[in-house]
Design a protein that fits this description.
Length: about 140
């Protein structure tokens, strides 16, 4: 794809908007459709687009496979950690309505943290799957 100048320029122009849109979907989920899953897929699509245009090696230098593999369990740990916090406060698993008695918006923070965990897990899993399939047969 070295000769596809138009694709490379358009991709460099579009990618920041793709990632900003992923953040918008993530943080605006309380008010409209969206959330961690949708935002994670959008962010992963941005990385995959970069890999398709600039090559797999360039994408792996930008988003290292070791980082991707570490983020998958990190997202699950964030999600599960919020659930365990509910248990530690005497509530049900993922019942974060009273995580902190002195924090007035603990319900919103609980939802936000769960969605962050979902975002991290989904985006890193999608990129890891792409790396696995795109890197088949390469040494």
């Amino acid at each position: 794809m070295r000769l596809d100048v138009i694709l490379r320029v358009v991709t460099k122009f579009i990618l920041p908007f793709v990632f900003v849109f992923a953040l918008y979907v993530q943080f605006h989920a309380d008010y409209s459709a969206g959330g961690g899953f949708q935002a994670g897929v959008i962010a992963a699509a941005g990385v995959i687009l970069y890999a398709l245009i600039y090559g797999l090696n360039a994408a792996m230098r930008l988003v290292r496979p070791g980082l991707v593999e570490a983020m998958i369990p990190l997202g699950v740990l964030i999600f599960a950690g919020v659930g365990v916090l509910g248990w530690l406060t005497g509530l049900n698993y993922l019942d974060y309505s009273k995580l902190s008695y002195d924090m007035p918006h603990s319900q919103e923070w609980g939802v936000f943290l769960v969605e962050i965990g979902v975002f991290v897990t989904v985006s890193s899993t999608m990129v890891a799957i792409f790396y696995a399939f795109a890197g088949r047969g390469r040494k």
